[in-house]
Amino acid sequence: MVSLSKVRHNPQNMKTLGRGFPDTLKLFQMPASRFWYVGMYLKGRKFVRKSTRCERFADAREFASEWYEERVTERRNHKETGGLSFNSYALKSMETRKREMRRGNIVPLMITEDQRKLDKDILPVMGEISVTKVDYNLVDNFIDQLITEKELSASSLKKYVILIRQVLKSVCEHVFLTAVRKSHTPQNP
Questions:
Q1: Rounded to whole angstroms, what are the CA distances from 45 to 7, 114, 167?
Q2: 8-state DSSP, 133
Q3: Overall pTM > 0.85
């Protein structure tokens, strides 16, 4: 028997954007929403999707075109900046959390749950984005997407926000330590 939530969140009416765009870039609808969604595979295996918040196909197509261009630009910038992606700091943050677990400050179940949230929900959406682009609107849109797709409780949504905040805290710590190292490096005359 197929669960109702699976039926409500199965993509329907999939369309490509046409000439000039990859075939993996799709616009589709889901029974649980009145809006069109855009999605594509990143790095060959992660299917990332986002609500266009558009009911008309023409508006959704325009949104999808801009969204695709942003992903391409982010990928280029990530290669140029070398590791400023949300994903790279999420890895650093989880390593820190694992050290805290080994010290007995965190239970292993918390680490498992946090890693699941990262892998399944957060990184497919935010992983390739530069941490310099993460702002209130991005996180708010992500939380809104979770509400639309998963109908999570306020308590569960708060756990996602806390996890994102922990990753951003890792960014601040890393940037601070890098600045301290640079300020204490002897200058050549």
A1: 23, 21, 23
A2: G
A3: no
The last residue of one of the domains, among 81, 108, 140, is 81
Average pLDDT across each block of 10 residues of the chain; the chain has 189 residues. List them in order: 55 84 88 88 74 91 89 67 77 90 92 93 88 89 88 91 92 65 53
Distance CA 33, CA 57 (A): 14
Mapping DSSP onto H, E and C, the string for 74-96 reads HHHHHHHHCCCEHHHHHHHHHHH
Residue whose pair of structure tokens reads 């595979």 in the numeric block: 41
Residue type, 7: V
Q: What residue type is assigned to position 44 of the chain?
A: G
Tokens of 16: 């490509």
75 and 102 inside one domain: no
Domain co-membership, 27 together with 46: yes
* Whether residue 74 sits in one domain with residue 134: no
